[in-house]
Design goal:
Elements: E1 2-4, H1 10-25, E2 33-36, H2 38-45, H3 59-68, H4 74-87, E3 92-98, E4 114-118, H5 121-133, H6 138-149, E5 159-165, E6 171-176, E7 185-191, H7 195-198, E8 205-209, E9 215-218, E10 224-229, E11 232-237, H8 250-267, E12 271-278, E13 281-289, E14 310-312, E15 314-317, E16 320-327, E17 342-345, E18 361-364, H9 372-380, E19 384-386, H10 391-394, E20 400-404, E21 409-412
Parallel strand pairs: 16-17, 17-18, 18-19
Antiparallel strand pairs: 1-2, 2-5, 3-4, 3-5, 6-7, 6-12, 7-8, 8-9, 10-11, 12-13, 14-21, 15-19, 16-20, 20-21
Length: 415
């Protein structure tokens, strides 16, 4: 039931693990690890009869509780112990690799749970069960419905789980390779571990590497970073002197771009790649097909103030929409969102994905073009503008605004 990562294939280990296995076999720098295959998940839930929960008011919660309470077979625990010992029993990352995840049709970006800094067979076992259970969060079920699976939560979704050596990153980021090899490669980077970038809680530095090697960039004001402290993940302030300092130099951007080209060649198409730099070495953490390309690299934007009619951020998803602004600062505001509203939020957590089914557009205060929120907005075909500082205070509930996701602008509807 456990497969070495280098042997992983998508049909038994899911898209995420299958892609990393292919990159390892091609000699690319992927952290060591193994996969708890689909077979282990099927064995664990075989006699749970998950559909019996459908009639309950909180049936998805009940399903998750049943899976998380499920005893893991002693044979699998023994296999896990041996596999972790072979890695040297380090802290590990435990990550989802579902059957429909990281495919050319659906990224499932951020829809399932993953865990960093996990150590010991008991903690890893708990994290695996939690990954399995995350197939049945409301956001994951909604996403499957939006991806053409009829919204049926029990239509044989299966989850493999990827376990890899945890890397304590100095810098992490995301890279998009283009469909046209003559176009530029897009890179975003920030300090510390990657969830800050993919989760949109920081606005990252943005780099563009042209076919001829020319590097252009926009350096962001990076306030926070995420790091491991023993078995905990800790958010801390970035030292003042590093907040406006580039996270990578031009030479590193070029090296990343070359890696991106190799990955695209191995995978046979444009790729959405997560990468990290730890102890001075670059590693690839994920590669999946680009499901929807981001808008063109923006031209330099003028600074705006609260008194000006136009706010400018990063173009995250193409399209133009006009509607009432809806300030959403957290789950307590979800019930206030109506079809056609334009979400204005500090950042979007994966739990917010169902809102993107009804919203006309989304505006965030932090985050980059390659974050999970931007990817899902592009998959839903709604405009997104990211990284507008203080947007939740500069815009007001029910005010009519127009969002242009290709230019990265937000204007009063009557301006």
């Amino acid at each position: 039931m456990i497969v070495p990562l280098i042997s992983a294939a998508a049909d038994t280990c899911g898209g995420k693990a299958g892609a990393l296995g292919a990159l390892l076999r091609a000699g690319l720098p992927v952290p060591d690890g193994f996969v708890v295959s689909f077979a282990a998940y099927r064995a664990a839930v075989r006699d749970l009869d998950l559909e019996r929960f459908v009639g309950e008011p909180d049936h998805l919660d009940a399903v998750r509780r049943a899976i998380e309470a499920r005893p893991v077979h002693a044979t699998l625990i023994d296999e896990l112990g041996r596999a972790l010992d072979e890695l040297g029993d380090p802290p590990v990352a435990v990550r989802s690799s579902a059957a429909y995840e990281d495919t050319g049709q659906a990224s499932a970006a951020g829809q399932h749970d993953s865990f960093l800094a996990v150590r010991g067979v008991g903690a890893v076992t708990d994290a695996i069960r939690a990954c399995w259970a995350s197939l049945f969060t409301s956001r994951a079920v909604d996403y499957r419905g939006d991806s053409g699976r009829g919204g049926r939560p029990f239509a044989d979704p299966v989850m493999a789980v990827l376990v890899q050596r945890h890397l304590d990153a100095e810098v992490s980021g995301v890279m998009f390779t283009p469909a046209d090899p003559h176009d530029a490669i897009r890179i975003e980077a920030s300090w510390g571990l990657g969830p800050s970038i993919v989760g949109g809680t920081v606005t990252p530095d943005a780099y563009r590497v042209a076919e001829d090697g020319l590097v252009t960039h926009t350096i962001a004001h990076k306030l926070t970073r995420l790091d491991r402290r023993c078995r905990q993940l800790v958010v801390s302030d970035v030292p003042t002197g590093a907040r406006d300092r580039p996270t990578i130099d031009g030479a590193t951007a070029k090296l990343l771009a070359e890696l991106g080209k190799k990955i695209a060649a191995v995978r046979g198409g444009p790729q959405d790649i997560e990468w990290t730099i730890a102890d001075g070495r670059t590693w690839i953490l994920q590669a999946r097909p680009v499901t929807a390309a981001p808008p063109a690299w923006p031209s330099p934007a003028a600074h705006t103030s609260a008194a000006e009619p136009t706010l400018t951020g990063a173009p995250g998803s193409r399209g133009v929409a006009t509607g009432p602004a809806r300030i959403v600062r957290g789950p307590g505001d979800f019930a206030r969102v109506h079809p056609g509203d334009i979400l204005v939020c500090p950042f979007t957590d994966p739990a917010w994905t169902p809102l993107l089914r009804i919203a006309a557009g989304v505006i965030t205060e932090t985050g980059g073009v390659l974050s999970h929120a931007a990817i899902v907005a592009r998959e839903h075909g709604i405009p997104a503008v990211l990284g507008i500082p203080n947007a939740t205070s500069r815009l007001h509930d029910d005010s009519a605004i127009t969002i242009d996701g290709a230019t990265g602008t937000v204007t009063a509807a009557n301006a």
